[in-house]
């Protein structure tokens, strides 16, 4: 039931405090009217009859005596139809591309619908990104959540844009595929980079964008991934599409959560983050998956920047617990002028084994990935030895490992920003580089695979 209150207790930064409120609900949307100007807000804390409201815009001009607050009796809902593809929205689902409103008979709660664990279907098959080090060694499986761990100043935005431009289902699939992109706390030039990149590549018509700019209110940042995931659920489970959701930057989202928690005077946990950070992140990540009886799927790639490149920081630490693997960007590899600077050794995809091989990619994929990991891991030992005794003193086999390591980084990991390799080109390239090593060193490959594919 709608109710209106004319006297505010106080206005503190982005927060409004009201008392004497009856029947308010957590997360309820309110409308604030000040001298004819309307703003939106939502209830973020309840205590007896006292309510704290977070305003979606700034609170300039709001006083305790000349404003009214209307409680709408509903949570934040957004209208959805297939027309959202090709459109750009802000963090609360309002169009920001001057292309008009989305008209739909149905409005959807941005907090989503929990997936019954019994109704979940095990992820199978893969999504091709066109990036060799991901497709071959940390394969992205439909319905998986696979985060990218990056650092400040690293090219994660470029990598996200490349994945969005190139991602597709397997070569022989005729199923519908689309991308939902959520950007949180991005600068205006980064937002323009994403939009221009998708327009120039001609893929904007298959992307729904939800962008929260750095100068927008933090409460909008909290809503941005929820709006994006609600759109993904609609496209996947009502329109039977396969949806890839890319969210950047989850660290910016968590910092907004910390700021909001601090303003509500909650007891902080690790590094000042709220104690419910784990469950809050899980409420986003667990919206990925496949459901029995539904043809569509939601696959997630959350991107986060690790403060000080610290992988034990609460945001990457908790994200690693919830998700099924990670892709780690390395500053050392980045400084070698290698793009994308993916460090394949700490990167993994826990569901990879169930979506590759015969019937999905190619029969040799699993064995080949194991062999490449093993060989590149041995390269690190050889490099350490060479730093002690010098490269000239290495055995002939170790020298070949050194050459394999150089070729692997320069030819396989490194690729151009607009270079799109299909899965067969990627696997063939891996075999070509492995041919540098003697056959007897390929102990992770069966004789049948060596006979069929080895190029030495």
UniProtKB/TrEMBL annotation:
The keyword Ion transport applies. It holds the Pfam family ATP-synt_VA_C. Residues 11-73 form the ATPase F1/V1/A1 complex alpha/beta subunit N-terminal domain. PROSITE patterns: ATPASE_ALPHA_BETA (PS00152). CDD domains: ATP-synt_V_A-type_beta_C, ATP-synt_V_A-type_beta_N, V_A-ATPase_B. Residues 354-453 form the ATP synthase A/B type C-terminal domain. InterPro entries: ATP-synt_VA_C, ATPase_a/bsu_AS, ATPase_F1/V1/A1_a/bsu_N, ATPase_F1/V1/A1_a/bsu_N_sf, ATPase_F1/V1/A1_a/bsu_nucl-bd, P-loop_NTPase, V-ATPase_su_B/beta. GO terms for cellular component: proton-transporting ATP synthase complex. GO terms for molecular function: ATP binding; proton-transporting ATP synthase activity, rotational mechanism; proton-transporting ATPase activity, rotational mechanism. Produces ATP from ADP in the presence of a proton gradient across the membrane. The V-type beta chain is a regulatory subunit. Belongs to the ATPase alpha/beta chains family. This is V-type ATP synthase beta chain. It comes from Oxobacter pfennigii. The gene is ntpB_1.
């Amino acid at each position: 039931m709608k109710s209106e209150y004319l006297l505010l207790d106080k206005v503190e930064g982005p927060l409004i405090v009201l008392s004497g409120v009856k029947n308010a609900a957590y997360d309820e949307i309110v409308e604030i009217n000040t001298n004819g100007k309307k703003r939106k807000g939502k209830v973020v804390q309840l205590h007896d009859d006292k309510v704290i409201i977070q305003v979606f815009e700034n609170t300039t001009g709001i006083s305790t005596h000349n404003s009214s607050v209307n409680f709408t009796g509903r949570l934040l809902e957004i209208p959805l139809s297939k027309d959202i593809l090709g459109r750009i929205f802000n963090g609360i689902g309002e169009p920001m591309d001057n292309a008009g409103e989305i008209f739909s008979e149905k409005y959807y709660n941005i907090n989503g619908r929990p997936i019954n664990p019994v109704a979940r279907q095990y992820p199978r098959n893969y999504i091709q990104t066109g990036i060799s080090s991901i497709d071959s060694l940390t394969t992205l499986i439909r319905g998986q959540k696979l985060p990218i761990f990056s650092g400040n100043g690293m090219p994660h935005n470029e990598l996200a844009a490349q994945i969005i431009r190139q991602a597709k289902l397997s070569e022989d699939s005729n199923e519908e595929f689309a991308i939902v992109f959520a950007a949180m706390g991005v600068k205006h030039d980064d937002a323009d980079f994403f939009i221009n990149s998708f327009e120039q590549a001609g893929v904007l018509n298959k992307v729904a964008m939800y962008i929260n700019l750095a100068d927008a209110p933090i409460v909008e940042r909290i809503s941005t991934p929820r709006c994006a995931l609600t759109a993904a659920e609609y496209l996947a489970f009502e329109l039977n599409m396969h949806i890839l959701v890319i969210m950047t930057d989850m660290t910016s989202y968590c910092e907004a959560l910390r700021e909001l928690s601090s303003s509500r005077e909650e007891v902080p946990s690790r590094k000042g983050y709220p104690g419910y950070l784990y469950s809050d992140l899980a409420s986003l990540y667990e919206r990925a998956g496949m459901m029995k009886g539904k043809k569509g799927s939601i696959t997630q790639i959350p991107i986060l920047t690790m403060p000080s490149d610290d992988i034990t920081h609460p945001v990457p630490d908790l994200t690693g617990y919830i998700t099924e693997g990670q892709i780690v960007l390395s500053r050392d590899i980045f400084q070698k002028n290698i793009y994308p600077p993916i460090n394949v050794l700490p990167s993994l995809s826990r569901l990879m084994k169930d979506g590759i091989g015969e019937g999905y990619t190619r029969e040799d994929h699993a064995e080949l990935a194991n062999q490449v990991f093993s060989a590149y891991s041995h390269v690190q030992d050889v490099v350490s030895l060479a730093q002690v005794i010098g490269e000239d003193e290495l055995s002939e086999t170790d020298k070949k490992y050194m050459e394999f390591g150089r070729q692997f980084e320069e030819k396989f990991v490194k690729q151009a920003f607009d270079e799109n390799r299909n899965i067969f080109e990627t696997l063939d390239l891996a075999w070509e580089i492995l041919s540098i090593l003697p056959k007897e060193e390929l102990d992770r490959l069966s004789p049948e695979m060596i006979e069929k594919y080895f190029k030495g």
